[in-house]
């Protein structure tokens, strides 16, 4: 997940905190909309 955070920081100009929050928001959204993917999303995002 750190690689994605770094990519968000460099390509989108986000701070570390903003990048982390963006990923948390995306993760929560995907799990909310597609609960059957919760395990896969957890594995992908390291949770």
Summed up, the domain count is: 1
Derived from helix and strand composition plus strand pairing, the structural class reads: mainly alpha
Strand content: under 5%
How many extended strands? 0
Rounded to the nearest angstrom, the distance between the terminal CA atoms is 10 Å
Rg, Cα atoms, Å: 11 Å
- In round numbers, the mean pLDDT is 92
| Helix/strand order, N-terminal first | HHH
Shape designation = elongated
Q: Which residues form runs of ≥5 with pLDDT under 50?
A: none
Number of H/I helices = 3
Q: How many strands, what sense, and barrel or not for the largest sheet?
A: none
Portion in helices: over 70%
What layout of secondary structure does this protein have?
Layout: H1 2-12, H2 16-33, H3 38-45
Helix pairs in contact: 1-2, 2-3
If you had to describe this structure to a student in words, what would you say it looks like?
- The chain has 47 residues and is an all-alpha fold.
- The protein has one domain.
- 79% of the residues lie in helices and 0% in strands.
- It has helices at residues 2-12, 16-33, 38-45.
- Helix 1 (2-12) crosses helix 2 and helix 2 packs antiparallel against helix 3.
- The longest helix has 18 residues, at 16-33.
- The protein is elongated.
- The N and C termini lie close together (10 Å).
